[in-house]
Amino acid sequence: MLMLAYLEETKRAVLEKFEKEINAFAGADAEGIVERKKLHYSDTVASGIVSVAADYHSDLIVMSMKGRHTVMEQLLGSITTDTIALSLMPVLVIPEGSQYRPVRKIAYATNFEAGEAVAFAKLKAWKERFGAEVEIVHVTMGRPVDRERRKAAEGFLSTEFGEVVVIDHPSVADGLEAYLQGSKADLLAFFKPQRSF
């Protein structure tokens, strides 16, 4: 009985802290941001996020980015990286300290992976929703581009989004960072294939 009371008090405190943080973040607009609050217990934070998003039939998971570890985590963050790996729905990652601005240009980083047609369809919908320009970017890391995959992808991409920007850089993360420094992209999108291992 004592353990149940402790869990209930912990739940109340966590939800109260969450509400204070949302109110501090959103100010007067906080009322419409959170429709439902749920404390969810899970093995990992990422699996909990994906599970709750699926329970609510969400269209998109929105996360912040902070902290840097591996190359992928340098771009995103460890919980964010894990959530992307587990999620079957799009994940929007917002860098810590970002200020909102309208999305006028979307950069899509591609490796011409099988299965990207699904991502391209979603990208087209986002392009239309925001009225944004889309630029397709590929970092080669000094290796020749798989011509067959690229040719198949470019046929579709050029009709929908224009030319593909090819960047030769030894690191995908650094190549994309260099591209973004010179680009006026407001949003970077990419496809994360589901792996079975």
Quick overview of this protein structure:
The protein is of the alpha/beta class and 197 residues long. The chain is built from 7 helices and 6 strands; from the N terminus they run ααβααββαβαβαβ.
Q: How many helices in DSSP terms?
A: 7
Mean pLDDT: 77
Terminal CA distance reads 42 Å
Query: How would you spell out the order of helices and strands?
Result: HHEHHEEHEHEHE
What's the architecture of the largest domain in CATH terms? 3-Layer(aba) Sandwich
State the strand order across the main sheet: 5-4-3-6
Q: What would you report as the Rg, rounded to the nearest angstrom? A: 20 Å
> Helix coverage percent of residues?
40-55%
Spans of at least 5 consecutive residues whose pLDDT stays below 50 are: none
Q: Strand fraction band?
A: 15-25%
Number of strands: 6
| Structural domain tally | 3
What is the CATH topology descriptor of the largest domain? Rossmann fold
Fourth-level CATH superfamily of the largest domain: HUPs
Oligomer classification:
single chain
Layout of helices and strands, plus pairs?
Layout: H1 2-26, H2 45-55, E1 61-65, H3 71-75, H4 78-86, E2 91-95, E3 105-109, H5 116-130, E4 133-139, H6 147-160, E5 164-167, H7 172-182, E6 187-190
Parallel strand pairs: 1-2, 3-4, 3-6, 4-5
Helix pairs in contact: 2-4
Keyphrases for this structure?
197 residues, alpha/beta, Rossmann fold, four-stranded parallel beta sheet, two-stranded parallel ribbon, 7 helices, 6 strands, elongated
Walk me through what this model shows:
This protein is an alpha/beta fold and 197 residues long. The protein has three domains: 38 residues; 60 residues, HUPs (Rossmann fold, 3-Layer(aba) Sandwich); 97 residues, Rossmann fold (3-Layer(aba) Sandwich). The protein is built from seven helices and six strands, in the order ααβααββαβαβαβ. The strands form two sheets. A four-stranded parallel β-sheet has the order 5-4-3-6, sandwiched between helices. Strands 1-2 form a two-stranded parallel sheet. The protein is elongated. The mean pLDDT is 77.
